[in-house]
Write a structure and sequence with these properties.
The chain is of the alpha+beta class and 284 residues long. It folds into 2 domains: 3-152, Beta Polymerase, domain 2 (2-Layer Sandwich), CATH 3.30.460; 166-282, Four Helix Bundle (Hemerythrin (Met), subunit A) (Up-down Bundle), CATH 1.20.120. It has 11 helices and 4 strands, in the order H-H-H-E-E-H-E-H-H-E-H-H-H-H-H. The protein has a 4-stranded mixed sheet. Helix 1 packs parallel to helix 8 (192-216) and helix 8 packs parallel to helix 11 (261-282).
Length: 284
């Protein structure tokens, strides 16, 4: 992933990743968690992804033994939709304790995982999972909807998510990503290829946050990006044609006739602002 694009998009979750260092696409815990119904991993086939997950689980079982409480795949890769080739493998690793000893034991497996192009696993204790549901409502909402237990027990199944700070978290993430998109776009306006990459990677994060906007407004969540955008158009009361256009570029890798990355950016910023105002209005 292009460095500039990665700073805005993160992983599927980077929307979540900002919250808890969770992979948009998941996203949001990669909010991405996380996030929705997409393919399994950036640049990997489903078979390759499954092999990596099996290998990771074996390495962590060997490293931690009985201290490994749970290993969970969450986000796009856990949802079974194979249309999107750009989703990450987001993994939650839960131990019964985390000291420097556990960190040292995790290093070889985590380094191996990162060297294969995957986002860092989330490393939490079982107690932290139980007590952080009020801090990361986006991430845990997504995990409750879509996850796959790779090892150990399902620590998410009976988790009660506290929604007290939910709307505030969604708005904070939206405004933070909006500001970051402006900053990175200002650096790339004369670099069309990199600007295009920035748009196609960032749209995943905004779709993750858009899904949570739908939930906040009392609507059913959507998980495929095009469905999220369609539902948002109804909720907000305006077309989000540039979101749809960028999703098309994301899928094909090509701009449509007459499109430029800069022209897409112009309207993309307007549509993102409409989404931010919609979420802000839910708190009034």
């Amino acid at each position: 992933m292009d460095e500039a694009a990665g700073e805005v998009a993160g992983s599927a979750a980077e929307a979540s990743a900002v919250a808890i260092p969770v992979a948009v696409d998941s996203a949001v815990l990669a909010v991405a968690i996380p996030v929705a119904g997409e393919q399994a991993v950036t640049g990997k086939t489903q078979q390759q992804a499954e092999a990596l997950l099996t290998d990771l689980a074996a390495r962590l079982k060997t490293a931690f033994g009985e201290r490994l409480v749970s290993l969970i795949l969450y986000g796009s890769a856990s949802m079974g939709d194979r249309l999107d080739q750009m989703s990450d493998l987001n993994v939650l690793c839960v131990l019964d304790r985390i000291t420097t000893d556990e960190l040292a034991k995790s290093e070889p497996a985590f380094r191996w995982w990162l060297e294969r192009g995957n986002p860092s696993p989330l490393l939490l204790t079982a107690d932290e999972v139980r007590t952080s549901a009020d801090c990361f409502p986006m991430e845990y909402h997504d995990m409750r909807e879509h996850r796959r237990v790779l090892a150990g027990v399902d620590v998410i199944e009976n988790l009660v998510v506290d929604n007290t700070a939910y709307r505030t978290q969604v708005e904070h993430q939206l405004r933070s990503k909006q500001i970051r998109l402006r900053q990175k776009s200002a650096e790339l306006l004369t670099q069309a290829d990199r600007l295009q990459k920035l748009l196609t990677h960032s749209v995943s994060t905004f779709c993750v946050l858009g899904r949570h906007a739908l939930i906040l407004s009392g609507r059913d969540p959507r998980f495929k990006k095009t469905e999220v955008v369609g539902a948002l158009e109804t909720a907000i009361g305006r077309k989000l044609e540039t979101f749809q256009a960028i999703l098309a570029v994301r899928e094909t890798g090509k701009l449509a006739a007459g499109q430029t990355a800069k022209s897409l950016l112009d309207n993309y910023l307007i549509e993102i602002d409409a989404l931010v105002r919609f979420v802000d209005g839910l708190g009034k």
